[in-house]
Design a protein that fits this description.
The complex is a heterodimer. By secondary structure, chain A is of the alpha/beta class. Chain A is built from eight helices and ten strands. Helices cover 33% and strands 24% of the residues of chain A. In chain A, the strands form two sheets. A six-stranded mixed β-sheet of chain A has the order 6-7-8-3-9-10, sandwiched between helices. In chain A, strands 2-1-4-5 form a four-stranded antiparallel β-sheet, with helices on one face. The two termini of chain A are 32 Å apart. Chain B is mainly α. Chain B has two domains: 56 residues, no CATH class; 216 residues, Orthogonal Bundle (MetI-like fold), CATH 1.10.3720. In chain B, 31% of the residues are buried. Classes of the chains: A alpha/beta, B mainly alpha. The interface between A and B is medium-sized, with 25 and 25 residues.
Chain lengths: 258, 286
């Protein structure tokens, strides 16, 4: 068994609201192997985004460990590629200058970063829009730009927090296939930690799915998705796929009635 | 009916056509907006003219608009030097107010302690009537240009400092978090997110500042000067040359409007994204 790329052990985190403690994470443990696509699914407000903030290093856990390649780090910011729920494109920067933020913050010259980003624009469906401001883009394009920004950080781990949540069903299905294509073929090899509310999306995309309980979050179940890759849209109607969806729904419901 | 057609057509229009249609709509919107006040001003001027002529009001009391225009034309060559002096004072006053305003905003932004210490003082400072302070400034800085520059700066630094400080404070915390997650330091975050996102707010304050700046210089010149529009006004008033006084007032007001438009143009040139965003939002609401 290879060493996990990322492992989270017994993580606790709580906040104070009007002086009262509100536990958000109550002993969450999970791991992701190199190159694995791992999805977290759970009811809204179950602390998934908090978990991401802890892994990214924006906040510190009350207890527990976060390890990269088997080591804990004092400063975790800058270690993983992070795509928050909102696309957070800067309205004052063109698409091209938005997607190079990662390398720019890492000290790469703007010109060099732009040259690299230009090569990826077609793959991300943004060709011809490099000089456009984000306000002129459609929702799907904004998400793709945010994804390109995350990819261009060149981190071995990417945390994607509901990247497709704001899209309509059609665009969403398209983007799922596209995401797998980009991840598998061209940029490949990264470990992805993915948050979603959508059971079908979780099964379609992932190698493994963790089901979280409502707040305070714990891992309610872990499900291995044994579907072959590359994944095809036609798979979603196969008995295996439907069985996996049912198993996932059952785990979610069991977690909910905890 | 006529007004709704271009909006429907724009769906298939190219970006260039779209911009043109938008410009056309902007023009008619501007006409709708500035038409009524322009008509009202014209009406008031006509009433003023008629009232002065019919009522035989003496010129030193209230000159007729036509007389003011005529006088303005006659004294224009003499006014040029005064205008130059006032603009010079205004310019350096604005430079000084920008420097102090920006420094203060950064200081307020730097630490919560400094914010709590400085912010109320800044607000309180605005309750001091500058016009009462001006004679004292002349005592301190003399009758030269410095006392005028200081008055302009005192009038202008406040909107600049407050608008920039508020703009910096209003930065989207999630934008900041995004950069932090990328490993960016405080300085990088300040340059990359906080300054650009504060610029629209800064320009709102700067536009207010430039609108008041000329008036600040004129007030300072009242107290004592060897040249400038303020001095010209005082002299005209003392000599009961009321038409000249009115001419100087009109020039002052035109200069203020001109400065405002200049800064608005600068804002448009420097923040094209801000207007693109606003325009998109407008499109969505159409």
């Amino acid at each position: 068994m290879p060493e996990p790329k990322l492992s989270v052990t017994n993580l606790y985190k709580g906040y104070r609201l009007h002086g009262l403690p509100v536990p958000v994470l109550a002993g969450v443990s999970l791991s992701a192997l190199p190159g694995e696509f791992v999805t977290l699914i759970g009811p809204s407000g179950s602390g998934k985004s908090t978990l991401f903030n802890l892994i990214v290093g924006l906040e510190e856990p009350d207890a527990g460990e976060i390890c990269f390649d088997g080591c804990t780090r004092a400063v975790r910011t800058g270690l993983v590629g992070y795509m928050p729920q909102r696309d957070l494109l800067f309205p004052w920067r063109s698409v091209l200058d938005n997607v190079i933020l990662g390398p720019e913050m890492a000290g790469v010259s703007r010109e060099k970063a732009r040259a690299e980003a230009r090569e990826y624009l077609p793959l991300f469906g943004l060709q011809g829009f490099s000089d456009a401001y984000p306000a002129t883009l459609s929702g799907g394009m904004r998400q793709r730009a945010a994804l390109l920004r995350t990819f261009l950080c060149h981190k071995e781990i990417m945390l994607l927090d509901e990247p497709l949540g704001a899209l309509d069903a059609l665009t969403r299905a398209e983007m799922q296939e596209w995401l797998l294509e980009v991840w598998g073929a061209r940029v490949g090899g990264q470990t992805i930690l993915f948050i979603t509310h959508d059971v079908e999306e979780a099964v379609f995309l992932s190698d493994r799915v963790y089901v979280l309980t409502p707040r305070p979050a714990q891992i309610a179940a872990e499900l291995r998705i044994m579907l072959p890759r590359p994944r095809r849209r036609s798979m979603v109607t196969t008995p295996v796929f439907i069985a996996l969806k049912e198993a996932l729904l059952a785990a979610l419901n069991a977690g909910n009635s905890k | 009916m006529k007004e709704t057609t271009p909006e429907i057509r724009t769906i298939e229009e190219s970006p260039a056509q779209r911009t043109r249609t938008w410009a056309r709509q902007r023009f008619s919107a501007a006409l709708r907006q500035s038409g009524p006040p322009a008509a009202l001003i014209a009406l008031l001027i006509v009433l003023w003219q008629v009232a002065v002529v019919i009522g035989r009001v003496p010129e030193w009391l209230l000159p007729a608009p036509a007389r003011i225009l005529q006088t303005a034309w006659e004294v224009a060559p003499a006014l040029v030097l005064h205008i130059g002096q006032t603009l010079l004072e205004t310019f350096w006053g604005l430079v000084l107010s920008l420097a102090t305003g920006i420094l203060l905003a950064f200081a307020i932004d730097l630490s919560p302690l400094l914010r709590r210490a400085l912010y109320p003082l800044l607000v309180a400072s605005q309750t001091i009537p500058i016009i009462a302070l001006a004679p004292l400034l002349v005592v301190w800085f003399g009758f030269g240009i410095i006392s005028k520059v200081v008055v302009v700066a005192l009038v202008c630094f406040f909107p600049i400092a407050i608008s920039l400080a508020d703009g910096l404070r209003a930065t989207d915390p999630e934008h900041v978090a995004l950069l932090r997650a990328m490993g960016a330091g405080r300085g990088q975050i300040f340059r990359t997110v906080r300054i650009p996102s504060a610029l629209p707010s800064f320009f709102s304050g700067f536009k207010i500042a430039v609108t008041y700046s000329i008036i600040g210089a004129v007030i300072a010149e009242w107290i004592g000067a060897s040249q400038g529009l303020g001095l010209y006004m005082i002299r005209s008033a003392n000599a009961f040359r009321t038409a000249q006084l009115f001419a100087a007032i009109i020039v002052t007001s035109l200069l203020s409007i001109g400065l405002f438009l200049l800064v608005s143009g600068l804002e448009r040139a420097l923040l094209p994204w801000y207007y693109t965003t606003k325009r998109e939002e407008q499109w969505e609401s159409l």
